[in-house]
Please model this.
Amino acid sequence: MRRKIVVGNWKMNKTNEETKVFVKEFEGIAKSLLERKIIVGIAPTYLSLATAVKGSKKLLIASQNVHFKENGAYTGEVSVPMLKELKVKWVIVGHSERRQYFNETNETCNLKLKALVTGGLNPIYCVGETLKEFEDGLTKEVIKNQLVEGLKDIEASAVKSFVIAYEPVWSIGTGKNASKEIAEDICAYIRSIIRKLYSKAISERVLIQYGGSVKPENVKEYLGQTNIDGALVGGASLKVDSFKTLLENI
Ligand code: PGA
Model:
């Protein structure tokens, strides 16, 4: 049985002080879910990572981004060794907002994924199609490219502990979540690509999340699908009450 993993992606929300208050609220529920093999995490901004790590023993703390170089003249960027020093172990790579607003490509995602593997950190690698691609019937083609190019030259021994998040761009922050059937179909497809690129054993180990307007009311139906091992949650992870209810509803 694969574990489940639910991570709140806070995007550009919450100050350091707000993070401190929030994580305190979640130790108990994160502990009891861990006993059921469900990992709960949050991805605050860079500025709040140290506070989140310090304030929590049971939550998985993820960075929302990283640069692929270790250091250098890259104004505004943060590297793998810097995250490691803070004891951050997880990093979101290739979120559609980064692809859309910050020119992230499959190639830069690949460099980031490799840098994480070298540094011994774990990625949550996001893939997903835009509304136009969905309407044009290109979903699987897009996802396949994102996987093939993003995972290029990365060894099976590393990929087996990756988390892949399927996030259709048209469902992020829109309230228009993909149906559980669509989400399951694409997550099963992602697993089949991993099987082709690596092996059946690796494909059965990789955790695959669905993300896009996951709410307390719909989380259970996604996590009940054979190939969906968790959720990446934006808006509904920002308020203590809604994230708690979402976790209680799993
Ligand atoms: P949403 O965001 O839950 O607000 O749709 C999901 C995400 O961007 O990871």
